[in-house]
Amino acid sequence: MAILVTGGAGYIGSHTVRLLRNLGRDVVVLDSLERADGRALLGAELVVGSIADEALVTKTCREHDVTAIVHFAAYKSVGESMSSPGMYWQNNVAGTVHLAEGALAAGVHQMVFSSSASVYGNPKVTPITEDAEIRPENVYAESKASMERVLSWYGATHGLRSVSLRYFNAAGASLDGVIGEDWSVTTNLIPLVMKAVLGVSGPVQVFGNDYPTADGTGIRDYIHVEDLARAHVAALDYLDGGGTSTAVNLGTGIGSSVLEILRRTAQEAGREVPHDIVARRVGDPATVYANPSTAQALLDWTSELTLDDIIRTAYAWHASQIQN
Ligand code: WQD
Predict the structure, then answer these.
(1) Pair 243, 259 in one domain
(2) 192 CB less than 6 Å from ligand 1?
(3) pLDDT for position 323
(4) 3-state DSSP call for residue 157?
């Protein structure tokens, strides 16, 4: 009995694949390798292909006796989604339809889905609970919300049970420094801060210091990638135990500001982070952080790693990549 992990060569996918294998679970990865090189898989079984190839999905599930799927495969750049929306509708949304069809043809009825807190858009109330209004503000976030609804309808029509995990801000690297994030394709704050403090880029741009927050900069809920990996295992166990379809926030419930990230990074690196204060980024909410109580109640999961663990592991990982 195996777990099929789509997009397992990616950032959160590779940490989840590694944890599943360390727990003795059989894993097979389906990844097109169009946005990852596969090194982070550390030898896990890999089928190179697309989730849109229904016959390949069905064949892989049957050959490996797959009982559940963890679905990471998706494009995830907010900016790219607005300049090339068709890619996101095709790859993310239509791809999920093909994946579900291929899985159901093989008799697979359990799926853990990699969703995003960006489905909430600019929240009216924080901390954010799962019953908050779904108000995507970009095509990427809309594609994630649409994927959730596609899976929900496959539950109604075909008995596919799914857990949509709405990540807040994923960050950090493996505690032992073996795998981490590929900063070459990111626009997220923490890898960009590491580039700046390691001298690989110019000053990091702080998008606004005039928000209605304590220090004027944006607040987010940064969650360690290894905590996220644990949550995916907990969601698989929840479904295996007969759990019904649902959506769950994955966050710490703690908000941290941009300047706090800079300050903690400077402490870790022993030098200031070069940065410039610039205008706000259009569409950025001031404050976003999770109410994580549903994850505790349904999955018996809470975050364990801290912002210092995130900064320490991210700095160590990115510094090691420069030396390689
Ligand atoms: C974090 C904070 C910025 C970059 C994104 C996407 C979505 C989701 C989470 C997957 C904000 C500030 C950032 C920079 C900055 N991921 N910032 N300078 O926008 O909260 O959410 O990641 O689902 O992809 O919604 O993440 O890292 O871009 O920004 O000042 O160069 O850092 O304003 O306050 P965000 P982020």
Answers:
(1) no
(2) yes
(3) 75
(4) helix
User: Which residue in 304, 309, 298, 138 sits closest to 230, CA to CA?
Assistant: 304
Q: Among 76, 92, 118, name the best residue to mutate to test ligand 1's pocket (greatest count of ligand atoms within 8 A of Cβ).
A: 118
Peptide bond connecting 127 to the previous residue in cis, omega within 30 degrees of 0:
yes
Which residues constitute the domain of residue 150?
2-170+223-250
Task: Quick: pLDDT tens for 178-193.
Answer: 999 998 878 999 999 9
Amino acid at 263: R
Residue 1 CB coordination number (10 Å): 10
User: 287 in ligand 1 pocket by Cβ < 6 Å?
Assistant: no
Do 82 and 17 lie in one domain? The reply is yes
Q: What's residue 185's pLDDT?
A: 79
- Work out the angle between the directed axes of helices 95-105 and 139-158 (0-180°, nearest 10): 20
Give CA–CA dist 44/38, Å, rounded. 9
Q: Cβ(223)–Cβ(169) under 8 Å?
A: yes
Q: Confirm or reject: Cβ of 166 under 6 Å from ligand 1.
A: no
CA gap 145, 322 in Å, rounded: 36
C-alpha 205 – ligand 1 centre gap (Å): 12
In 64-124, where does DSSP find H-type helix? 78-83, 85-88, 95-105
Tokens standing for residue 123 = 């929240």
How many CA atoms, within 13 angstroms, populate the side-chain half-sphere of residue 232? 34
Evaluate whether residue 281 is within a structural domain: yes
SS3 244: coil
Q: pTM for the complete prediction?
A: 0.97
